[in-house]
């Protein structure tokens, strides 16, 4: 059985890019984005639960998030969870609704966030290169087992390199877009 699996390599490289996009969506840009609250967990009913399982999060205005808590007994727990998440947001309670105004970012914080976005991008590129290394190693194993010829190995290594280049370019584009979004606010 051949070690090399193109679909698996494509899936793993694509997964690294998707993971990066998810990480980048959590970076605050000064514009209200509901995914900013994705990492928030709330202690309710004796368990830790993601915020989206106890409330509805929406962005009614460009600089405001609104959290509609389903059970009024959980409002203070939601407030506490948002505060503990250290997102730099100041929750304001209005009945079962928690409003979160987005504070302006100062220039220093913008630069820090842009640098952090670059670090996320670098981690994604490392993951993509690790997948490439694994693929090239499996091609060498296949060649040693005489399942593919040396020419096939070289052709498939070129194919793997093209996939790597494509995913690295996607990573760079995602990071560049996020950096522009952070710096242009």
UniProtKB/TrEMBL annotation:
Keyword Protein biosynthesis among UniProt keywords: yes
Gene Ontology molecular function terms on file: ribosomal large subunit binding
Region (Disordered): 137-172
Subcellular location: Cytoplasm
Record keywords: Cytoplasm, Protein biosynthesis
InterPro entries, per database record: Ribosome_recyc_fac, Ribosome_recyc_fac_dom, RRF_sf
Major localization class: cytoplasm
Annotated Ribosome recycling factor domain residues: 20-183
Pfam families the UniProt entry points to: RRF
Gene Ontology cellular-component annotations: cytosol
One example of a Gene Ontology biological process annotation: cytoplasmic translational termination
Family (UniProt): Belongs to the RRF family.
Function, in words: Responsible for the release of ribosomes from messenger RNA at the termination of protein biosynthesis. May increase the efficiency of translation by recycling ribosomes from one round of translation to another.
Protein name: Ribosome-recycling factor
Originating species: Altererythrobacter xiamenensis
Encoding gene (name): frr
């Amino acid at each position: 059985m051949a070690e090399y699996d193109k679909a698996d390599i494509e899936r793993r490289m694509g997964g690294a890019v998707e993971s990066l996009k998810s990480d980048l969506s959590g970076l605050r840009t000064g514009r209200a984005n509901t995914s900013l609250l994705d990492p928030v967990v709330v202690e309710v009913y004796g368990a830790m639960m993601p915020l989206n399982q106890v409330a509805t999060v929406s962005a009614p205005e460009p600089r405001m998030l609104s959290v509609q808590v389903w059970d009024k007994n959980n409002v203070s727990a939601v407030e506490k969870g948002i505060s503990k998440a250290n997102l730099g947001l100041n929750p304001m309670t209005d009945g079962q609704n928690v409003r979160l105004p987005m504070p302006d970012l100062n220039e220093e914080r913008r630069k820090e966030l842009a640098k952090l976005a670059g670090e996320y991008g670098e981690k994604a590129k490392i993951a993509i290169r690790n997948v490439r290394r694994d693929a090239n190693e499996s091609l060498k194993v296949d060649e040693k087992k005489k399942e593919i010829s040396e020419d096939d190995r070289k052709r498939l290594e070129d194919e793997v390199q093209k996939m790597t280049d494509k995913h690295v370019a996607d990573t760079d584009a995602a990071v560049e877009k996020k950096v522009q979004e952070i710096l242009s606010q």
